[in-house]
Design goal:
The chain is mainly α. About 50% of the residues lie in helices and about 0% in strands. The strands form three sheets. It has a two-stranded antiparallel ribbon with strand order 1-2. The chain has a two-stranded antiparallel ribbon with strand order 3-6. It has a two-stranded antiparallel ribbon with strand order 4-5. A hairpin with a 5-residue loop joins strand 4 and strand 5 (about 545-550). Helix 5 (about 75-85) packs parallel to helix 6, helix 10 packs antiparallel against helix 11 and helix 16 packs antiparallel against helix 17 (about 340-350). The longest helix has 25 residues, at about 470-495. The two termini are about 40 Å apart.
């Protein structure tokens, strides 16, 4: 059939009847051109679409070379662009008179051309339509048994035809030698206006919605790579539906919308069971964060279970990714919430002491969780040994004090007193000071006045005997300020009148012995305890030239309020976002059931095939 179509008998001279659709047009008065019809057998695009989807470039060029009427003008311009695209030929400017949505469909062709420019030499192997276009045998370019046995040449050279016959000739693919440069970048072509216009057309024409979703996804990824999070979020919000992108790219579209905040983090739960190839660790991290926020403990335990398989040396390698350590922490959170104490003990023993010196929020959070876990346990030598593995030796006293405070607040008075006894016999002066701070808090909880007075007096030894180095003194003063804040906060509800009096007497002594930089904080605590305003700034001139110092009321006491969101934010992750295989929107071939979507590319390709990436 093809050879017969290549010869067309003309009744008049081709200069009168034939117009080369790809030659530079001569200016003509703007006339109304028929808009594209709905896809189907009656569409003017039908014959061109049929040839294209058959990959028969020779037949498509022959059809474009034949004369046509105005109803075919839009189809000829679009498929003419596609021929130039797959032949790596320069694309002409789109006339201002071009109607919507043909203008937008042709703009997508130019967007694809710009993508090839970005991909450069990698286009031949990248998972996009360019590895098909750059494959010499992908399209049929042969004439078959033509008189000259030549390949077709393009563009049509109308001045060479006789008055009786027309033969279309197209140049062989220029992709091997053509420059990959593009006049415009992808973001300059994938504009908000293009996306808005295409989306508007897709409201009545559902066949365009997959193309809108591909464009929105691609624009969002480009903007995210460029660091424009707000623009990327806006673009991702215009994806009609991730399911329109196919199963592979669709799952990445759902992930992208979560990453950009279009969907709240709880939506990560919907990704359970989805596979993301080399991006799986990063996705598991995000999924764990969403499950943590949703308090879905069984699912969180399951998703993070693989993190336990890493050897301690590899898990705690500072040069390695922080993601496995964050997953271990969230796994520990799930175990604690589920009451799986033995599994939690084993997990902490697996992570420490290997991770003890890793300065990361997830490791710090895991350490705090372990201390809180141990604080509820009976004191024994094994617990003391496990506590010693959580950090370097210089922070052991601090962790011991934390364990004592946690034990006291959880009702484990015996554990708190054992921790205090260990601290006040420590060989370091800073450790002993922490022991007396803990003893003061125990005495306050028991409302034991004499014991409280003795503990406060023991925190600061005689100045002549104070042998603390500056760093140790700073640590002690910080512990004393934390004690004062804790006592003042609970005094209104838990302390007797006699104990509040003792506290008012002791706070000035603690303030005077602590570093001068902490004086302001102690003054605010004293004001709160005495229920009087506290100065918040320098005096200001009032009436008569008098200076009035601004005052602020300080509240004291405990008010039940909703607990703040204490979920540790996840560490930054790097996700290798796949690109749409094609950005095009090509009218379907005749006979396609209605409503038919504009095709992106040929059915053998897979969108977002991360297994091949």
């Amino acid at each position: 059939m093809a050879p017969a179509l290549l010869t067309v008998t003309l009744a008049v001279s081709p200069t009168d009847q034939f117009v080369d659709p790809f030659a530079t047009p001569t200016p003509e008065p703007v006339t109304e051109v028929a808009a594209p019809e709905a896809p189907g057998a009656a569409s003017p695009a039908g014959p061109f679409a049929d040839a294209f989807w058959r990959k028969d470039l020779a037949l498509l060029v022959a059809l474009l070379a034949e004369p046509g009427d105005k109803s075919e003008a839009w189809a000829r311009s679009l498929f003419g662009d596609l021929v130039l695209l797959v032949n790596c030929e320069p694309l002409p400017a789109i006339p201002n008179a071009e109607q919507t949505p043909v203008r937008e469909l042709r703009q997508l062709v130019r967007l694809e051309r710009a993508r090839r420019a970005r991909l450069g030499k990698s286009a031949a192997t990248a998972p996009t339509l360019w590895r098909d276009i750059l494959s010499p045998g992908f399209f049929n370019r042969a004439l078959g048994p033509a008189p000259d046995g030549m390949l077709l040449f393009w563009p049509v050279e109308s001045e060479r035809w006789s008055t009786e016959a027309l033969r279309a000739r197209v140049r062989p693919s220029a992709c091997a030698s053509a420059s990959t440069a593009s006049k415009s970048s992808e973001l300059e072509l994938a504009t908000p206006v293009l996306l808005m216009n295409l989306a508007r057309e897709a409201i009545p024409d559902q066949g365009l919605r997959p193309a809108v979703s591909r464009l929105a996804y691609h624009r969002a990824v480009l903007l995210a790579r460029a660091g424009d999070a707000a623009g990327a979020r806006e673009a991702a919000g215009q994806i009609f539906g991730p399911e329109l992108l196919g199963p592979d790219l669709g799952r990445y579209a759902r992930l992208l919308r979560l990453e950009l905040g279009v969907v709240p983090p709880e939506g990560y739960v919907a990704l359970i069971g989805e596979r993301f190839g080399a991006n799986q660790p990063a996705v598991d991290e995000r999924l764990a964060y969403g499950l943590h926020r949703a308090r879905s403990w069984e699912q969180l335990r399951s998703v993070t279970a693989t993190s336990r398989a890493l050897a301690p040396a590899r898990l705690c390698d500072r040069a390695a990714s922080p993601l496995p350590r964050d997953l271990v922490y969230r796994h520990a959170v799930a175990l604690q919430a589920l009451g799986l104490a033995d599994e939690l003990d084993a997990l902490v023993a697996h992570a420490f002491p290997a991770c003890a010196t890793v300065p990361e929020p997830a490791v710090d959070a895991l350490r705090e969780l372990a201390i809180a876990h141990y604080a509820r346990r009976p004191w024994d030598a094994a617990l003391e040994a496990r506590l010693g593995t959580l950090g370097p030796p210089q922070r052991f006293a601090r962790d011991m004090q934390k364990l004592g405070v946690r034990a006291l607040r959880s009702g484990n008075l015996t554990g708190a007193q054992r921790a205090m006894g260990w601290l006040i016999t420590d060989r370091t002066a800073a450790g002993r000071a922490r022991g007396w701070v803990l003893e003061a808090e125990i005495a306050f909880a028991l409302q034991d006045g004499p014991r409280f007075d003795r503990a406060v007096s023991s925190i600061f030894p005689d100045p002549a005997a104070d042998s603390l180095r500056p760093r140790e003194r700073e640590e002690r003063d910080r512990a004393v300020e934390e004690l004062a804040q804790s006592l003042v906060t609970t005094a209104e509800d838990q302390a007797t009148a006699d104990f509040r009096r003792r506290l008012r007497e002791k706070l000035p002594a603690l303030r005077d012995r602590a570093a001068l930089k902490r004086e302001k904080s102690f003054n605010a605590l004293l004001a709160a305890l005495e229920a009087r305003p506290v100065p918040v700034g320098p005096p200001a001139k009032g009436p008569g030239g008098r200076r009035n110092r601004p005052m602020a009321e300080v509240a004291v006491g405990e008010i039940p309020v909703a607990a703040p969101d204490a979920v540790l934010p996840p560490p930054p992750v790097q996700i290798d976002w796949p690109e749409p295989y094609s950005l095009l929107a090509i009218p379907p071939p005749p006979g396609t059931p209605s409503p038919a979507s504009h095709g992106a590319w040929f059915a053998s390709t897979v969108e977002g095939d991360d297994a091949k990436r």
